[in-house]
Specification:
alpha+beta
Amino acid sequence: MSSPPRLTDCRESDCANIPSIVAFRQHLHLSPPTNPLNCAALHSIHLPFPCVMSTPPLLKKESSPLLLTDDGDSFLVSPRSGFTDKYSLSPDPTHWGSSLSPNDPEPDDDLHDPESKGVHRPSDFVTGRGLANLGCIALVAIALVGLFLGYPVGKFVTQKVVSNEGSANVRVNATGQVASIGNFGLIDLDTPSDAYTITSLHSGKEMQLVFSDEFTTDGRSFYPGDDPYWTAEDLHYWSTNNLEWYDPVAVTTANGSLKITLSATPTHGLNYQGGLLTTWNKFCFTGGMLVTSATLPGTNNIHGLWPAFWAMGNLGRAGYGASLDGMWPYTYDACDVGTAPNQTLNGLPEIARTSGSMDPTQPYDGELSYQPGQRLSRCTCPGESHPGPIHSSDGSYVGRSAPEIDVFEAQISGENLGTVSQSGQWAPFNAGYVWFNTSDNLVIADPDNSIFNTYIGGAYQQATSVVTNTNQKCYELLDGCFSVYGFEYKPGFGDSYISWIADNKLAWTINAGGLAADTQTEISARPVPQEPMYIIANLGMSNNFGAVDLANLTFPTTLSLDYVRVYQYPDAINIGCDPPDFPTQDYINTYLEAYTNPLLTTWVDDYNQTIPKNSFVEPC
């Protein structure tokens, strides 16, 4: 049904035949001129739709048209202009002249007409606008890659490489960590420039600095995870029957030096609290010189304190017994009886059963060794657990271990004189623990200041040691001065050596010949430690090291280290805890609990692991 016509849709001439409009016109024509639109009179006209009237002849041209509704009400609207008449559309879309059916395409929209054929728009494969778009995308991609890849890589490289004032370009440690000693480098930027090189007291040649910590920032924390290189342990050092508990709170920095404090503070059931700090698995070095400048704790004439500064192979963690079982203090790369438990096989050689300690207070009864055997020896059967590497000559494993070299263990001599014991610890052992200490192999720089140590070993270690007088003023309760201690060593066999430094002077040297093969115990030569070595500093007490004069010792007491520095020859730089020729990281990760749980004291009984098969002891 069609809609009724509206006056808004037609002009006056178009509406002439509409009955209601005829009556309306008649009414208008009869209206007096003074009242051309009498709206009240229109109530009698019933229009079925609103109607907008054009201006009648009786009205002025500018008068507004009248809108009438079917109930007789009316109101005025503004007249249309010629412009709006030209461009206005009817409110009824059916009068627009276009089909409203959704099935019919619009006449000007071939793009959306699915039936349209042959619509062609000229275009080029490459356009200026397209190139601009691609260029924009490329720039954004380059910026993103630079932000998320280039920047981190660049930052890592610039932090890792050290090239200040002739210092060495060295690798970061095995865990990939970058130093955070206040200035983000392996070499502390507070290290004086004149300390970037040093002259070897052994060879007279120049060595260069590869690591340093000056401890100039006070209040540093060494709790696990707080420092990139150092970790203070939280354990009891049961293996030497120490009287104190090692607690991280006892280790900090103050007045520009490292402070390790021993106090009469009850801790974990023990009456004393001390500190042990290490760089285990964080910083290691192989070969070169390790030095520190120390103020020893207490005074120079009261017995009992045990301050120490030393190094150990990374495959053993100090204080973690399971990691050390069958590893410390071996340094051995041969497949013979030296790798066997107790250093014997089927009761032989006889001298290994009779040349040991005869101390009646000990259970050894002349047995030379109570060691369980070298756990990771050259005799390890193929396929057994071993960190490697493998000898190219015969396909056997390289013998691995956790050797020890002591910069110093401070003590008080019988004459109430401050001294330091400077030692190497070894396994397997010579008969009677007597190494080849001839004048070619044992060189004491000043016999008036240094003497051969009377302690040469026991059932668990052989010691090569010399005792040297300290600077008697450089103690905490005396002048408090600092004195330089260290060692320099060349790993391996042949011309290898270890030289010790006390009070910044050469104290003594052991040459590799002193550790030659021993036909009596049927062992091969022991190399100067070839393992990557980490640094340890500690202060404690133990009757194992000597009498402890608790009545006269003063607590708290502190070992102070002004700095720790490592030097190497420019053609022999070897920094890192996981070097390719002596890897450690995979093995440590495989047996991580042994290296993180100090309550595991043995490899087999506590940790429930097996000893790798040894081809010398049993068939593979």
